[in-house]
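Lay summary. Proteins are chains of building blocks that fold into shapes, and those shapes determine what they do. In this project we predict the shape from the chain. Here is one chain we studied, written as its sequence of building blocks.
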Amino acid sequence: TDLFDLSFSWGILTLPELLDETSEGMFTNMVAFERMYPCAGTGVTSFLSFMDALIDTAEDVSFLGNEGILKNNLNSDEAAAKIRIL
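And here is the predicted shape, written in a compact code that computers can read:
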């Protein structure tokens, strides 16, 4: 899955399927890399800021999943909502 594979067209938001048991560790490492090497850009940090604005609660995860916007591969919507990287 490409991290930057997100689109908004004709009122439809499409996001990459990235929520699984490895997501939190992977994102933490990617953000640390961006901070350590500014020339790498801020794409991951920007994406995670966007996701953080969309998801605050398990209900947000459930809604995005029901609408086909987000696929949660974790055990619960609560677990997905608790992921905090930034």
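What the prediction tells us: The first helix runs from residue 23 to 36.
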